[in-house]
Amino acid sequence: MRRRDFMTVLAGAMTWPLTLRAQQKAMPVIGYLNSATRYAGSVDAFQSGLAETGYREGQNVVIEYRWAEGHYGRLLALAAELVRRPVDVIVTSGGSISALAAKAATNTIPIVFLGGGDPVKSGLAASFSHPGGNITGVAQLVTAVEEKCFELLRELVPTVDTIAYLENPTNPNAAQSTHNIEAAAGSLGVRIVVIRASSESEIDAAFAMISQKQIGALLVGSDSYFFMQREQLAALSTRDGVATMYFFREFVVAGGLISYGTRLSEGFHTVGVYTGKILQGTKPADLPIFQQSEKIELVINLKAAHALGLTVPQSLLARADEVIE
Questions:
Q1: What is the average pLDDT value for the chain, to the nearest integer?
Q2: Enclosing H/E stretch for 130
Q3: Residue 173 — pLDDT band, cuts 50, 70, 90?
Q4: Which of 73, 78, 65 is closest to 39 using CA atoms?
Q5: 171 in Cβ contact with 187 (< 8 Å)
Q6: I need a labelling partner for 270 at 20 to 30 A (CA). Which of 13, 33, 78, 310 fits?
Q7: pTM of the model
Q8: How many alpha carbons fall within 13 Å on the CB side of residue 308?
């Protein structure tokens, strides 16, 4: 090989790593922040929505996952880590607390949230139709239906005069949710016992207290840590004979008795679509916050009811969107 040809080949070879790095840098990066742990169903639904806009993980987009594992105090640091990465858009889920952490970390990187509360009241957005700033997303309004969950539980076990309410004291939204439930209980003439738990051992202790006080029904507050512990909660409820109401169908699939709420997978799917649109150039302020409240599902597990010795009223079964046998 002549020297000139050799030098040409050598120069080309030396530029390959630079070209590869340039291609990798050009690939957009999504920061995925969740207050709980990885749940395959949610991730799959998010990626399905993302794929509708042409983005697929590992092919033309990178996703950096950060999980707080129920430790809400970690969220600020994890959000700041994604900002330093840096990422092109931040997706948050597991409650408004994750979105608020991302908002505190950046006012320039677009944020797409999936939250259970009112994003206007929490300070995330100016309005549903015109969120403003760098934030948009999906509001499942989980906390807004907690009072209805209470009413349905009362209908399921009408003879119970005391209902326990499980609250996570580390959740900033817990106090307001508890206040709403206590007000609903007062209007129905039912006594509420608030029990607080934020760890596995405290959940065990909570059920020990429920058994000691002979409370026959429990309403689980909407909280991402409780979602993580859905199998523990379902198992303890069955063991101790406690009729328990949950906020997502995943609890019922895990063996729980009854749930009333929006379908989690649909929320994640919409978040994926929104994220793809932002990567394509749409500004968050131009995407109205999607309210996932048109379809709220009532799911009942008859096997769990049988284990508890409960007969589900026909009025509830007739209204159920899904019955697991």
A1: 91
A2: none
A3: confident
A4: 65
A5: no
A6: 78
A7: 0.88
A8: 27
